[in-house]
Amino acid sequence: MSKPGIYKRGNIWWIHYTGLDGRQKKESSRSKRFRDAEALLIHRKNEIQKGNQPEVVQVKNHTFRELAERYREFSQYQRGYRNKKSIIKMAEDEFGNLPLKHFTLAFLESYQAKLLASELSEATVNRRICCIKHMFTKAVDWKMASESTMKEVHKVKMFKESLKRDRFLSREEIERLLEACGTDRQQLHLKPIIIFAVNTGCRKSEILRLKWQNVDLEHGFISIHEPKNKEMRMTPINAPLRQLLDGLPREEGIDYVFFNFKTGDRLLDLKRSFPTAVKKAKLKGDVVFHTLRHTFASHLVMSGVDIATVSRLLGHKDLKMTMRYSHLAPNHLSNAVGALAAALMSPSTLESTNAESPKE
């Protein structure tokens, strides 16, 4: 396969054309596909016909480690950086000083298969691949990688994640979890946090950032600043929650509602205390802190609260996110139709209809 202005060097197709200054220009398409070079040549000639001298960006031979360092600095103030930081580190350990131009579809698909073979879930593998894809998107912006390399990386298809119902705790499991918190002063912060979580449905980050200035005991509301949606929602204070808040210790100079009662320091995470309590309570299944949020929503639905109200309490921007709990209210569709019948047909209409119906 050949065409004037297109030739091959090794496995890569190159193009040459005449610039506005009358000089011959040679440029790599950075692709092994002929049609990519052909498209680039057409694009360059069109630019020249418009009177524009094509700007050929020379990309240096950067390594993945260099990209990881730049991307780490770029994302350090983003929401969810703590999780992204670990993904970047694992990718950096895997690829090290490998040049970015060596990343191809086949190469990343091989890495993707390796992750799945290590018994990671489809969701976990997808999060890692997604992070790498965004790293290469930024690499093009930073002139560290070519667009053709970025396109190769973005061809990797994500796994279809298996749908499963969200794990939630029963009343008995909640009691076992609270009993497992223990009485050690270093663990005293955990029990009130769990009680708060199952009565509000708040995310862990929302709970650990909560300050007393956002708690209005007089009017019975808590102002929750959502780090995920960057908005604020109002959460009602029920009786168990009020009893909890009234009994929490307060120390001068500490604005946070929940803190380490032993050291007085702000709590940044519950990576050790919560899994320890779950293990001690012998809870089966994949129980993480976010399970408490599912527990809040699930018990509301099972108590007859409508999906729209549950959605508002959770702070969901899309009702579709809350519909995952709809299976817990199997009678909600029949109840809705029954309510419609009661609204449209009066008792007298129903009686006359029954009287006219033929009896077998």
UniProtKB/TrEMBL annotation:
Listed PROSITE patterns: CB, TYR_RECOMBINASE
Alphabetically ordered keywords of this record: DNA integration, DNA recombination, DNA-binding
InterPro entries linked to this entry: CB, DNA_brk_join_enz, Integrase-like_cat_sf, Integrase_catalytic, Integrase_recombinase_N, Tyrosine_recombinase_XerCD
UniProt cross-references to Pfam families, sorted A to Z: Phage_integrase (PF00589)
DNA-binding as UniProt keyword: yes
Family: Belongs to the 'phage' integrase family.
Protein name: Integrase
The species this protein was found in: Geomonas silvestris
Source organism phylogeny: Bacteria, Pseudomonadati, Thermodesulfobacteriota, Desulfuromonadia, Geobacterales
